[in-house]
Amino acid sequence: MAREFTSVGVVGLGTMGAGIVEVFARNGIDVVAVEISEAALERGRTTLTGSTDRAVAKGKLAEADRDALLSRVHFQVGLDALHSVDLVIEAVPEHLDLKQRIFAELDRVCKPEAILATNTSSLSVTEISVATTRPNQVIGIHFFNPAPVMKLVEVVRTVVTSADVVADVEALCERLGKVDVTISDRAGFIANALLFGYLNHAVSMFESRYATREDIDAAMKLGCGLPMGPLALMDLIGLDTAYEILDTMYRRGGRDRRHAPVPLIKQMVTAGLLGRKSGRGFYTYERPGSPVVVPDEQTPVASESALADGARGIAKVGVVGSGTMATGIIEVFAKAGYEVVSVTRGAEKSAKVFESVKTSLNKGVVRGKLSEADRDAALGRINWSATLEHLADVDLVVEAVVEELSVKKALFASLDEICKPGVVLATTTSSLPVIDVAMATQRPADVVGLHFFNPAPIMPLIEVVQTIRTSAETTTTAKAVCATLGKTGVVCGDRSGFIVNALLFPYLNDAVKMLEASYSTADDIDYAMKLGCGYPMGPFELLDVVGLDVSLAIQRELYLELREPGFAPAPLLEHLVTAGYLGRKSGRGFRDHTRR
Ligand SMILES: NC(=O)c1ccc[n+]([C@@H]2O[C@H](COP(=O)([O-])OP(=O)(O)OC[C@H]3O[C@@H](n4cnc5c(N)ncnc54)[C@H](O)[C@@H]3O)[C@@H](O)[C@H]2O)c1
C-alpha cells in the first residue's frame, strides 16, 4: 500500500516554491507553506493568489475551487510549523550549506516517518541527505518552472534512498497529474544537464554581440519551435538561480567549460537584474514578478518604414539551384510578388522544379490558403533559365546550389562578372563561411547569408548572416526582404552554425552522450525535454527526423571551427552513422521506424 500524503510542507515560496504549493493544494492536499520572514511570506502569498486569480480569469479554475485551494494552504514563518506533515519539499536558494542547514533542522522538527525532499536543480541530493539522520528518507523531487503548468517531475534517488520511499513519491507524482522520470543523483539530472549548456552559450552570444537578445530568442522559437527563447527563459528561471545551477554543474559535472557561467550573468546578478522576479533581466518587465515585457532602450524599432529605411529596392530576384531549398525559395519569392528568375543546370531540371512549385502551390489552393488566380499569378512571375546571363538585371541573387565551397566560390565569381552593380548576392549555405564565398567576388560588401529553413515555404525564420565585409546597407536590405516574405530575419555573425544550429546541435549531441553513459533511456530523455521544457520533440525524435549523418556533419563543423572540447561528436552518434542507422530516412536511427 502506497503511503498516504494528507499534508505536505513547502519551504521557500519563491519562483518554484509558490508554484509547488499550488500544485499540491490544487490536488486536495493540505500545505504548510513556510518562509524565512513575514515579508517573504507575504510575497509568496501574493504569487499564489496572483497565479490562481489568473487561472480563474482564464476560465481554467472555478472561483469556488480557487477558494478551496487557498483554504488548504497555511502560511507560517519558521520550520517549526512542519512538525506533523508527511512530506516536506524544500525550495530555498541553490546553496549547499543553506540546504544542509535546513535539512538538519527539518530532521529535528519533522516526525520520524516524514519524507524530506529537495527541489534542487543541480546540487547533490546525497550531500544534502547526509545532513540528516534519515538519509534513506531523503529524495529529490525536481519540479519544472512554472510548476503548475509543466508536466514533468524528475525523481532523484540517491544510493541510500529506500525503495519504498521512491515508490511512494512516484505514486504521489501520478496523483498530482505529473509524469515522473526516476534517475540517480547526477549534476543537472536529465533536463538541466541538457539545457544549461545551451542557455549559457546563448548568453555568451549575447555578451559578445553576436546577435541581439530579440534575434537570439526569435531564432530558437521560430527555428526550433521552442516555447520561449533562451534569454527569456533565463529571465523566467531567475539569473541568480541560473548562476548557481551553472556554477554547481561546472564543479560537479567534470568542469565542462560550457557550464562555467558567462561573466555577464554574475554582473547582472550583482546589479540586481535577476529576471522577471526583480522586474528586469535580459528584458524589462512591467513590474517585478510580471511576465509582461515592456520596451526599453534595447528594443528595436519594429515599424515597416523603419525596416525599409536605408534598404535598396528589390523587385526582381534570381534563384540559382534546383534542390529542395531552391525550389522552396522560388515559391516563397514568387508568392510574395517578386519577379523571379530561376537558373538551373538545364531544361529538365527546370521542368522538375516547376512541377514541384506547382504541386506545392496547389496544396495551398486545396487547403483554401491561396486562390487559383494567386497561384497562377505566382507561377507566371517565374522565368525559367539555364544560363546565369539571365541574372544580369536582377536586384538580388539567392544561391542554393550544392554545399561545396569550390562550387559556390566559382558561382559567385561568375555572378560578380554578370550581375549589375548594387545587386545583393546571397548564399543559403548552412555550414560554409559566408566570407569565403564573398571573397570570390570583387564586391564582398554586397554579399550576405540568407539561411532559410526547410521547408522554406513554411518555416518562419531566416538567418541573415553578415560577414566582417558585409555593408550595413546590404544587411538592412536583406532584413527588409525577409519582412516582405512574411518571415522574421534575425541578424547574426558569420560563425559555424549561425544561431540555431550552434545552439541546437551541441544539445542534441549532449543527449547522445547522456544515453551513451547509460544515465537514462532515450524515452525518458525525450519525455524530460518535452514535458519539462516544452520542446516540441525530444532530442532523439528530432535526431531521427533530421538525420544522424546530417547531425554528425554539423556537429563536426562546430567542433572544428570553435575547438570547444565539449562539442566533440558523441562516439555513439559516429557509430550509428557508420552502421547506416541514419534515422527515419533509413528506417532506423535511435529508434526502429520499420515496425511502427
Ligand atoms: N527557478 C527555476 O526555474 C527552478 C526550476 C526547478 C528547480 N529550481 C530549484 O528550486 C530551488 C528554489 O529556486 P527558486 O528559483 O524558487 O529561488 P527563489 O530565489 O525564487 O526563491 C527562494 C525562496 O526561499 C526563501 N528562503 C531563503 N532561505 C530560507 C529559509 N531559511 N527558510 C525558508 N525560506 C527561505 C526565500 O525567501 C525565497 O522566497 C533551488 O534549489 C532551484 O535550483 C529552480
Automatic annotation (TrEMBL):
<feature type="domain" description="3-hydroxyacyl-CoA dehydrogenase C-terminal">
    <location>
        <begin position="188"/>
        <end position="285"/>
    </location>
</feature>
<dbReference type="GO" id="GO:0008691">
    <property type="term" value="F:3-hydroxybutyryl-CoA dehydrogenase activity"/>
</dbReference>
<feature type="domain" description="3-hydroxyacyl-CoA dehydrogenase NAD binding">
    <location>
        <begin position="8"/>
        <end position="185"/>
    </location>
</feature>
<dbReference type="InterPro" id="IPR036291">
    <property type="entry name" value="NAD(P)-bd_dom_sf"/>
</dbReference>
<comment type="similarity">
    <text>Belongs to the 3-hydroxyacyl-CoA dehydrogenase family.</text>
</comment>
<feature type="domain" description="3-hydroxyacyl-CoA dehydrogenase C-terminal">
    <location>
        <begin position="497"/>
        <end position="592"/>
    </location>
</feature>
<dbReference type="Pfam" id="PF00725">
    <property type="entry name" value="3HCDH"/>
</dbReference>
<dbReference type="InterPro" id="IPR013328">
    <property type="entry name" value="6PGD_dom2"/>
</dbReference>
<dbReference type="InterPro" id="IPR008927">
    <property type="entry name" value="6-PGluconate_DH-like_C_sf"/>
</dbReference>
<comment type="pathway">
    <text>Lipid metabolism; butanoate metabolism.</text>
</comment>
<dbReference type="InterPro" id="IPR006108">
    <property type="entry name" value="3HC_DH_C"/>
</dbReference>
<dbReference type="InterPro" id="IPR006176">
    <property type="entry name" value="3-OHacyl-CoA_DH_NAD-bd"/>
</dbReference>
<keyword id="KW-0560">Oxidoreductase</keyword>
<protein>
    <submittedName>
        <fullName>3-hydroxybutyryl-CoA dehydrogenase</fullName>
    </submittedName>
</protein>
<dbReference type="GO" id="GO:0070403">
    <property type="term" value="F:NAD+ binding"/>
</dbReference>
<dbReference type="Pfam" id="PF02737">
    <property type="entry name" value="3HCDH_N"/>
</dbReference>
<feature type="domain" description="3-hydroxyacyl-CoA dehydrogenase NAD binding">
    <location>
        <begin position="316"/>
        <end position="494"/>
    </location>
</feature>
<dbReference type="GO" id="GO:0006635">
    <property type="term" value="P:fatty acid beta-oxidation"/>
</dbReference>
